[in-house]
Specification:
Strand order of the largest sheet: 1-2-3-4-5-6-7-8
Order of helices and strands: EHEHEHEHEHEHEHEHH
Oligomer: single chain
CATH topology: TIM Barrel
Number of strands: 8
CATH architecture: Alpha-Beta Barrel
Shape: globular
CATH class: Alpha Beta
Radius of gyration: 18 Å
Distance between the termini: 9 Å
Number of domains: 1
CATH superfamily: Metal-dependent hydrolases
Length: 279
C-alpha cells in the first residue's frame, strides 16, 4: 500500500462491533493511508490482534490483559515463550494498568489484584523492550470529579520500577483525558512519556484535555480513536473507526494553532518512534 500518513495508536477493530464489515473498514484505512495498533484486552483478544496484524500490512498488535479482565498475564507469557504468539508485529504491552471506575475500586482485594496484574505487564514489557500501553481510570470522588486514586497508585508503581530499571521502562498514556497537572506527574517519572489523544478532544466540555493539548510539546502527542468507542465530532454518536483519527489529528492542529500537515507529519513520526510502526 501507499506510505502511511496517519496512525491510530489504539483501536479495537477485532471486536465483534466490526464483524459485519471488518474488510470494508480495513479497505477504508488503506484507501486513506491510515495504519493502526490493535489492542488486546485478554488472552483471547491478544491472540486475535496478533493474527490480524500478521494478515494486514498496516496493522500492528498490542498484547495484554485489561485491568478489569479477571485473568492472569501468565498464559500470554507462556504462549510467547512457546512461540504460539509471534512477536514480530507486537509493538506494545497492554492495555494494562488500573481501573477503579468500572470495578469495585473501593475493594482492597480488587485493587491488589489489579496492581499485581499491572506489575506482570511491566516486567514482561521490560524483558521484551516494549513500551506499556497504559489504561488508567480512577473512581469518582464526592464532588463528582475524578478521585485520581487509580492514577496515584499507578504512578507509585511506575516510580518503583523506574528506580530499578531506569530507561528500560517506557510507557504511553492511552486515552488521555486529564489536564496538565497529572501529565506533569507522569513526565516527572519519565520525560519520554507520551499521551494518546482520543476523540474526546473534540467535545466542547473537554477543557482540561484541550488545555493539555495546547501545553504539551508536539512530540509528546499521539492520536488514537479507541474504536469502536468515543467517536470524534462530527461522527459523535456513531461507531468509531480508525479513519476518524484524521479528524482527531486535525482537531489537535487547530487547537494548537498549527499547520495541519506539519502536525500530521509529527504525529506520524511520534508513533514510529514510540511504537516502531514503520510500514
Amino acid at each position: 500500500m501507499s506510505t502511511l500518513q496517519y496512525i491510530d495508536t489504539h483501536t479495537h477493530i477485532h471486536f465483534d462491533d466490526f464483524d459485519g464489515d471488518r474488510k470494508e473498514v480495513s479497505d477504508r484505512m488503506s484507501d486513506m493511508r491510515v495504519g493502526a495498533i490493535v489492542v488486546g484486552t485478554s488472552l483471547e483478544t491478544s491472540l486475535q490482534v496478533v493474527k490480524l496484524a500478521k494478515s494486514v500490512s498496516n496493522v500492528w498488535a498490542c498484547i495484554g490483559v485489561h485491568p478489569n479482565t479477571v485473568e492472569n498475564f501468565e498464559p500470554i507469557n507462556s504462549r510467547v515463550n512457546s512461540g504460539e504468539i509471534d512477536m514480530s508485529k507486537v509493538v506494545a504491552v497492554g492495555e494494562c494498568g488500573l481501573d477503579y471506575f468500572r470495578s469495585d475500586g473501593t475493594s482492597k482485594e480488587e485493587r491488589k489484584r489489579q496492581q499485581n496484574l499491572f506489575k506482570e505487564h511491566i516486567e514482561f514489557a521490560i524483558q521484551h523492550r516494549l513500551p506499556l500501553m497504559l489504561h488508567i481510570r480512577s473512581g469518582v470522588g464526592d464532588d463528582g470529579k475524578s478521585a485520581y486514586d487509580a492514577h496515584n497508585d499507578a504512578l507509585k508503581i511506575l516510580q518503583e520500577y523506574k528506580k530499578e530499571h531506569g530507561g528500560g521502562l517506557r510507557f504511553h498514556c492511552h486515552f488521555t483525558t486529564f489536564g496538565v497537572d497529572m501529565a506533569q506527574e507522569f513526565l516527572a517519572i519519565d520525560e519520554r512519556t507520551t499521551f494518546g489523544i482520543p476523540g474526546v478532544v473534540t467535545y466542547k466540555n473537554a477543557k482540561d484535555l484541550q488545555e493539555l493539548v495546547k501545553w504539551l510539546p508536539l512530540e509528546k502527542i499521539l492520536s488514537e480513536t479507541d474504536a469502536p468507542y468515543a467517536a470524534p465530532v462530527p461522527h459523535r454518536g456513531r461507531r468509531n473507526e480508525p479513519v476518524f483519527v484524521i479528524d482527531i489529528v486535525n482537531a489537535i492542529a487547530d487547537l494548537r494553532g498549527e499547520d495541519r500537515e506539519v502536525t500530521r507529519k509529527q504525529l506520524l513520526a511520534n508513533s514510529q518512534r514510540v511504537f516502531n510502526t514503520n510500514a
